[in-house]
């Protein structure tokens, strides 16, 4: 079967669309947003200390750190998705259960 659109984009290492916390999509390439990257670093730091996803969400809300949507609060499911996304540590892009190499700069080094 031929591969179209978003899947082809991901397979070629480009961003397949949509928003992702910590990055801005510029012409199909993801560039780090510094203030959001600091939030990602805090999230990973707290997680390394065995902090639960729920407690991390509570902490980010307490610090009034905005989510990507700005009007919503942090939830443990959002924290878990971020933590498990390979892009933050490896720069690799996940799409439909597959992980692809890309030239995206990881935030966690």
Break the fold down into its secondary structure elements and pairings.
Blueprint: H1 5-11, E1 23-26, E2 29-32, H2 34-48, H3 53-62, H4 76-84, H5 87-90, E3 93-95, E4 98-100
Antiparallel strand pairs: 1-2, 3-4
Helix pairs in contact: 3-4
Ends distance: 37 Å
Q: H/E element string?
A: HEEHHHHEE
Structural class: alpha+beta
Radius of gyration: 14 Å
Number of strands: 4
Q: Give the percentage of residues in beta strands.
A: 5-15%
Helix percentage range: 40-55%
Largest sheet: 2 strands, antiparallel
**Strand arrangement, largest sheet?**
1-2
User: Any idea what the shape is?
Assistant: elongated
What do the pLDDT scores average to?
Answer: 94
Question: How would you describe the overall organization of this protein?
Answer:
The chain contains five helices and four strands, in the order H-E-E-H-H-H-H-E-E. The protein is α+β, with helices and mostly antiparallel strands and 109 residues long. A two-stranded antiparallel ribbon has the order 1-2. The protein has a two-stranded antiparallel sheet with strand order 3-4. The longest helix has 15 residues, at 34-48. It is elongated and about 45 Å long. The termini are far apart. The relative contact order is 0.19. The model has no long low-confidence stretch (mean pLDDT 94).
């Amino acid at each position: 079967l031929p591969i179209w659109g978003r899947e082809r984009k991901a397979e070629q290492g480009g961003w397949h669309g949509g928003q992702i916390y910590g990055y801005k999509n510029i012409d199909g390439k993801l560039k780090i947003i510094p203030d959001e990257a600091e939030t990602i670093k805090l999230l990973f730091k707290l997680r390394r200390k065995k902090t639960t996803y729920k407690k991390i969400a509570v902490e980010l809300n307490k610090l009034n750190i905005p989510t990507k949507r700005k009007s919503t609060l942090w939830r443990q499911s959002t924290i878990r998705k971020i933590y498990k996304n390979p892009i933050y540590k490896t720069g690799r892009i996940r799409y439909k259960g597959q992980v692809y190499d890309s030239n995206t700069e990881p935030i966690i080094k």
